[in-house]
Design goal:
Radius of gyration: 21 Å
Strand content: 5-15%
Structural class: alpha/beta
Number of helices: 13
Bound molecules: pyridoxal-5'-phosphate
CATH architecture of the largest domain: 3-Layer(aba) Sandwich
Strand order of the largest sheet: 1-9-8-5-4-2-3
CATH class of the largest domain: Alpha Beta
Number of strands: 13
Distance between the termini: 28 Å
Number of domains: 2
Shape: globular
Helix content: 40-55%
């Protein structure tokens, strides 16, 4: 029987199960005290003033744009090297995504951003690819210079470090994902965090997240004689439930002590075994940044797409799931139809055809990681790549 190594299964222990069961038995399962508790925990972890938990990062990105009034005729600068959620939300608002190619670290190239800014540019959405922070301060400086809002799609980077602090404090909005494959999961879920003292902004985002209601369900029904509410905005239905928050709190309890160190250990095992002049290891740590160890994105020098895909097939036959992050957004049919062309983003294309993502999950044993890396090296050597 071959050994099966999945790509990224969720790490669910009795702690998560017990927390969820407790909520199920509590009589309150939608947005309520557990969401509040989780918001407070994230607030102090990230060192931010405001946290709004939602049902996805997509909702968080969309709401940020909506709260700013971004719409038709506006442009939002972002990276093509991401999941389509990042740019789909711009289109949902009626605005135009303007893609700026990436640099050596998979992240948007700051030096190319300035050339793309014009009078229609209203926001920049950068992505911390694989958990490795972008150059926040440099992007913020550009945003301030041109009076543009800075939104960070930090779907991958909860717990990453920038200038000695947890990320979340520098951009105008930082959006996290707690989707099932993320480091910390609530099955589906996300959060907007921001550091502003603007109470109207917080209130607007809260209203927009739940049909524009002046009170959420807990405020209406769990306290006495407070049934009256008003619809003050044409809002959406993006709230997180207490079931999800209970799961998230259990994950959060284990995040710094178990989940992050384990992911880092797996990265280090891969780094050790895959040290090779024909391989480029993922960005991990610099003087000012440390990844959240979300995606182990390996690049292979001088490979083409066909051979890269062959490597994935051989590894899959051996029971090991690999992945590719990402097919650049502009290569997807719906974006091509809009006129975007990958030829305009050569670094994204070069990165895409050479990239392989290796399995990383916190239940993974050292021996599993050693097995994956040695099978991969053997495969690359048979194909005469290393
Ligand atoms: C870079 C990036 N942004 C946004 C999202 C959307 O996250 P969610 O599924 O929580 O909406 C994802 C999801 O995988 C992502 O990878």
């Amino acid at each position: 029987m071959i050994k099966k190594i999945p790509f990224s299964p969720p790490d669910i222990t009795d702690r998560e199960i017990n927390n969820v069961v407790e909520v199920l038995k509590s009589g309150w399962i939608t947005t309520g005290p557990k969401v509040k508790e989780f918001e407070e925990r994230i607030k102090s972890y990230c060192g931010v003033k405001n946290v709004i938990l939602l049902n996805s990062a997509t909702a968080g990105l969309f709401l940020s744009l909506k709260a700013l009034g971004i719409g038709e005729g506006d442009e939002v600068i972002t990276t093509p090297y991401t999941f389509a959620a990042t740019s789909n939300v711009v289109l949902h608002c009626g605005a135009k995504p303007v893609f700026v190619d990436i640099g050596e670290d998979f992240n948007i190239s700051v030096k190319n951003i300035e050339k793309a800014i014009n009078s229609r540019t209203k926001a920049i959405i950068s992505v911390d690819f694989g958990g490795f922070p972008v150059d926040y301060q440099e992007i913020l400086d550009l945003c301030r210079k041109y009076n543009i809002t800075y939104i960070s799609d930090s779907a991958h980077s909860f717990g990453a470090i920038y200038n000695g602090n947890k990320i979340g404090t520098i951009p105008d909005f930082t959006v996290f994902s707690f989707h099932a494959v993320k480091n910390l999961t609530t099955a589906e879920g996300g959060a907007i965090v921001f550091n502003s003292d603007d109470e109207d902004l917080y209130r607007k985002l809260k209203l927009l997240s739940l049909h524009g209601q002046s009170k959420d369900a807990f405020e209406k029904y769990a306290t006495t004689n407070s049934w009256y509410y008003e619809i003050q905005e044409v809002g959406y239905k993006f709230n997180m439930t207490d079931i999800q928050a209970a799961l998230g709190i259990a994950q959060f309890d284990r995040y710094e002590s178990e989940i992050l160190p384990r992911r880092k250990a797996i990265f280090n095992i891969y780094n050790e075994i895959l040290k090779n002049e024909n391989l480029i290891l993922p960005p991990q740590k610099t003087e000012s940044k440390e990844t959240s160890y979300h995606i182990y994105a390996l690049r292979i020098k001088n490979i083409d797409e066909k051979v890269r895909n062959e490597v994935i097939k051989i590894m899959s036959d051996k029971g090991i799931s690999l992945n590719v992050h990402y097919i650049p957004v502009v290569m997807h049919p719906v974006y091509k139809k809009m006129g975007y062309d990958i030829k305009d983003y050569p670094k994204s294309y070069e990165t895409y055809i050479s990239e392989l993502s290796l399995p990383v999950y916190s239940q993974m044993k050292d021996s599993d990681a050693e097995y994956v890396a040695s099978c991969l090296l053997k495969t690359l050597s048979i194909l005469k790549i290393v």
